[in-house]
Amino acid sequence: MQRTLITIGRRQVIGFCLALTAFELLTYMASDLVMPAMLDVTTELQADIRHVPNAFNLYLLGGICLQWLMGPLSDRWGRRRLLLIGCAIFGVACSAAFAAHSIEAFNLLRLLQGMGLGFVISVSYPALQEVFCEADAVRLMALLGNVALLSPLLGPLLGSLLLQWLNWRELFLALGLVAAMVWLGLYAWMPETVGVIRRDGQHQAPIPFSLKRTRQRYLALLGNRRFFGASLALGLMSLPLIAWIGLSPILLIQLLGQTPLEYGLWQMPIFSAVIVGNLILNRLLVTHALPELIRIGLWPLCMGLVALLGCALLAAGPVPVVASLALYGVGLGICNATLYRLALFCTEDSKGLVSAMIGMISIAVMGLGASLIAAIGGGTRLDFFALLSALGGLTCLPLLHGFLHDAKAASTKAQ
């Protein structure tokens, strides 16, 4: 691939960020927008209610199916080409859900739609990190996190309102049409970051693709204790939130008898809190190092999870549970983008492959963890959900302690 000088003007930067934001929002909206209708989906397709969380977890697992391949291929063929392919696959899978006539076909399409999430993580995130410097990249990751959180924040509420006029099939068709428009935006504005020289002189050279070499690089990453611990911690840290997204339709609508609109309103305090955490992160980035930001974020995160344990012991109702999740969400908003950046750069390997590995590990932890919580009764009672989610989230603490201790030791040695 020819090495050229990358010149990204202000207009292209804005267009690229907007197109990337739209694609990320769309990949999350494909899940959250239809969550209020999932009981209708299972009824129409004559399926068991257990498919409500299963469909969500399949979407998450779809995000890791091809990440192992997407990252290395984007290192070889370029980020832009791979992301356009991913957006096209996502749009076709959404449109095809309009014609699904069995729960098996629906779940397969959920898996394919989830692959769009994999392209976001393993292809677009490295491109973002390569275009911008460290501070700007962390800010943009946090802001992208805010936009992505608009989906679980507004998705259930918007889905409840749209279901007054549309059915779930028409919702998926609309998502497919929007994906086509996003594809055009990416085609017009996304720059290529592989095989080009940046204005600051840095260069991400194309890396020849080899299955054997790729396997060796992945095994080397798994042997990197700091990297593996940070990736596991990313998944465990987000597990309570993911479990809530998957099980809250059953807990609130099926068990507590709330309407889909009320269900949507209950999401707002939790995801607003995560956005507040991201905004706090944006302010603190100027004066604090990244490991210090994680230590700050762990205070509200741990307090929220401990409060969630208290809700489980006292068999509390939805108000204390949602309040505890909101407090936890503030800490998650501070820690998530920060830990991702530290994990991405604790190894010298190419960022496409590293980002893919982070995504595979963290999403697998979230998807399998949420499935386990659902399987052992997290969707049968609110206090069971609170107990299992809190315990799952708190397991990230030993991993974070080890990661931060190693980071401090490495920093001291470098000085």
From TrEMBL:
InterPro entries: MFS, MFS_dom, MFS_trans_sf, Sugar_transporter_CS. Coiled coil: none annotated. The keyword Transmembrane helix applies. It is found in: Membrane. Pfam families: MFS_1. Its main location: membrane. The chain crosses the membrane at residues 12-31, 51-70, 82-103, 109-128, 140-165, 171-189, 227-253, 265-286, 298-319, 325-344, 356-378, 384-404. It is a multi-pass membrane protein. PROSITE patterns: MFS, SUGAR_TRANSPORT_1. Residues 16-404 form the Major facilitator superfamily (MFS) profile domain. Keywords: Membrane, Transmembrane, Transmembrane helix, Transport. It comes from the Bacteria. This is MFS transporter.
